[in-house]
Specification:
single chain, about 290 residues, alpha+beta, Jelly Rolls, Arc Repressor Mutant, subunit A, 2 domains, 6-stranded antiparallel beta sheet, 4-stranded antiparallel beta sheet
Length: about 290
């Protein structure tokens, strides 16, 4: 892929959350960027092919490979470039094919940005071959694709694709050290978010007692099964608010709330905005 794909959100100076700009390109030797005080936003870089040279704040460096995802916080030191040819292949032409996004996270993205820090102080995740890597790569490609489409909701589609990519990274990180029974509970709750929550039924599904599942779930996720279940419901509601014209009552019912007023209160607790204000980008109050 030799053609640059680049998109900038025309409203980015005033954008409160979402993608500011994103793109996909191939760069040869000589390409590089250095920002001693960061970019002022979050930056996600995914190595599709080739290799990038990443320099940490302490001066040490490392090379990325296909499947590596790198995340910079707004004020993180940034120094990245196309990696030179390896000593064993001095005649090779160095290239780095990457996809990237500068963004301001939506409120509920916060837990998905807590990537473990490496010994060099970098948020780098090596996605091994498998479902997580495939789905992450697919989401990044869709992000770039939708950002270039002349659709009224193109920005939302692109942001949702980025959200999906971030979720797959967290899923991959969690799976590596997560108890298989807790992973089963997480997947069950995510797949059945609109159904009523029943702790006893969930524990039985996972082959654990209620007390044991509660303890393990909090140890591995930092929250309770019921709280996680509600977060999944409200995340679905947030997407419906952004991407559809359904009424608040209809959305409440779709995600499993019988009472629209109760739904509004629960939504406010998680997002710090009422549903109508969230739909209007924080410009209106209920």
């Amino acid at each position: 892929m030799a053609e640059d794909i680049f998109w900038r959100n025309p409203d980015s100076p005033s954008l409160r959350s979402g993608i500011l700009r994103c793109g996909s390109f191939v760069r040869k030797a000589g390409y590089g960027t250095r920002r001693a005080e960061g970019s002022g936003d979050w930056l996600l870089i995914y190595t599709v092919a080739g290799a990038g040279r990443i320099v940490a704040a302490d001066g040490s460096h490392m090379h990325t490979a296909s499947g590596d995802a790198l995340l910079y916080a707004p004020r993180d030191f940034q120094d990245y470039s196309t990696a030179p040819a390896p000593p064993s292949q001095p005649e090779a032409v160095p290239t780095w094919q990457l996809q990237w996004a500068h963004f301001m996270p939506r409120p509920h993205w916060s837990p998905w940005l807590r990537w473990p820090l490496s010994d060099k102080g970098l948020r780098l995740q090596r996605l091994e071959e498998g479902e997580a890597r495939q789905e992450f790569a697919r989401a990044m490609t869709r992000m770039v694709h939708f950002s270039r489409r002349p659709l009224p909701a193109a920005q939302e589609f692109a942001a949702n694709a980025l959200e999906r990519a971030l979720l797959w990274v967290i899923a991959d990180v969690s799976r590596r050290g997560m108890d298989s029974r807790v992973q089963e509970a997480v997947e069950y709750l995510a797949a059945n978010a609109t159904l009523p929550f029943h702790m006893q039924a969930l524990a039985k599904q996972c082959g654990l007692s209620v007390s044991r599942l509660s303890l393990l779930f909090r140890q591995h996720t930092g929250t309770t099964p019921q709280q996680f279940h509600e977060q999944q419901r409200l995340n679905q509601a947030a997407q419906l608010l952004r991407l559809t014209s359904l009424s608040i009552a209809e959305i409440a019912a779709d995600v499993g709330y019988d009472d629209p007023f109760y739904f509004s209160n629960r939504f406010y607790k998680l997002y710090n905005q009422r549903p109508t204000a969230y739909r209007n980008g924080g410009k209106a109050a209920e």
